[in-house]
Design a protein that fits this description.
The chain is α+β, with helices and mostly antiparallel strands. It is built from 11 helices and 17 strands. It has 4 domains: about 90 residues, Winged helix-like DNA-binding domain superfamily/Winged helix DNA-binding domain (Arc Repressor Mutant, subunit A, Orthogonal Bundle); about 50 residues, Dna Ligase, domain 1 (2-Layer Sandwich); about 90 residues, Ferrous iron transport protein A (FeoA) (SH3 type barrels, Roll); about 70 residues, Ferrous iron transport protein A (FeoA) (SH3 type barrels, Roll), CATH 2.30.30.90. The protein has a 6-stranded antiparallel sheet. A hairpin with a 2-residue loop joins strand 9 and strand 10. The radius of gyration is 30 Å and the shape is elongated.
Length: about 325
């Protein structure tokens, strides 16, 4: 059964006095005040944050003294330092005989401490099954905290997504050129993306269907996504699809459809040319533009730009128009 915090802190104070005086550590009175304020704080704090808390309590200590005291407190086992997600080093209490792990919000940087005996036992069992003797361990889980999660429900630019996050493409703004670039890459609204890397002012690396994509920051600002957990029904069946069959020649510029039938049996030369261009059943086709006299039609199929005469497009039936 855990010892109540007041009793723990009293023990910490007494042991601090004994060890620091025994080792003749200089500036003992100042360091003891730093310990007192540190014990009153239940958050993970950086040197700068602890200095500010000390100042608010009427203690003006040099940052070097605060930093050096925290270092000594770590050396003697009164504090533990952490570096979460490559952020600044922070410090927390280190109470003997107690262990906890951390969940870190990648949005607001909040650190949540948790204990789970089942998880601890499972880790020991796993180590034992591999003949591994555990000396020490820590677990850090990165994600979005309860307070920040509602912001992930709404649409956001891809540049705001965090590494490790799964998102769904909702729409592409920025006009015709942005949509063409996405179509050329093979990405479209409704696709599930795993965000691999998102470095500030750098490219965004994502994966979809076991394929990696490098997206420039400018384009990533025009791709609006939504957190995948909020889109489970959306992922099963993308919305805004028209299920009425139509001829490819009837599609409008900017529309995408799925080929459901390729005719031309009465003219094998036309049918062969259509199939050789990759216009086969199940292929996705995007109408890029029509020529000034509406013939030919410029299409994108599997990332390739092709031209198709209207009389040939009349032999192709498409569905799922969007």
């Amino acid at each position: 059964m855990p010892i109540p915090n007041n009793n723990i802190h009293n023990q910490e104070r007494e042991q601090f006095k004994y060890l620091f005086q025994q080792e003749n550590i200089d500036h003992f009175e100042e360091r003891y005040k730093i310990l007192e304020i540190f014990l009153q704080n239940e958050r993970h704090v950086t040197v700068e944050q602890l200095s500010d808390i000390l100042k608010n309590n009427g203690y003006e200590f040099e940052p070097k003294l605060v930093s050096d005291t925290l270092r000594l407190m770590c050396d003697f086992g009164f504090a533990r330092k952490n570096r979460f997600n490559d952020e600044n080093i922070s410090y927390e209490h280190h109470h003997l005989g107690q262990h906890h792990d951390h969940m870190v919000c990648t949005k607001c940087k909040k650190v949540i401490e948790f204990e789970n005996n089942q998880l601890e036992n499972l880790q020991m069992q796993i180590a034992g099954s591999h003949g591994f003797h555990v000396l020490q361990h820590k677990m850090e889980i990165y994600g979005i905290c309860e307070a920040c999660l509602p912001d992930r429900i709404n649409q956001m630019p891809l540049v705001m997504a965090k590494p490790g996050e799964q998102v769904v493409i909702k729409k592409i703004s920025g006009g015709y050129s942005a949509r063409i670039r996405m179509m050329t890459m093979g990405l479209r609204a409704g696709d599930l993306l795993d965000v691999i890397t998102n470095v500030q002012r750098g490219q965004v690396i994502v994966a979809s269907n076991f394929q990696r994509y490098v997206i420039g920051r400018g384009l990533a600002e025009k791709i609006f996504v939504q957190h995948a957990d909020h889109n489970k029904t959306f992922l099963k069946q993308p919305v805004s699809h028209q299920k009425t069959d139509m001829r490819l020649s009837e599609m409008l510029e900017g529309q995408t459809g799925i080929i459901t039938y390729v005719g031309g049996n009465e003219n094998r030369a036309i049918r062969r040319r259509i199939l050789e261009m990759g216009l086969i059943k199940g292929a996705e086709v995007y109408v890029e533009k029509y020529a000034p006299l509406k013939d030919p039609i410029e299409l994108i199929v599997k990332g390739y730009h092709i031209s198709l005469r209207v009389e040939e497009a009349c032999h192709i039936t498409v569905n799922h128009i969007r």
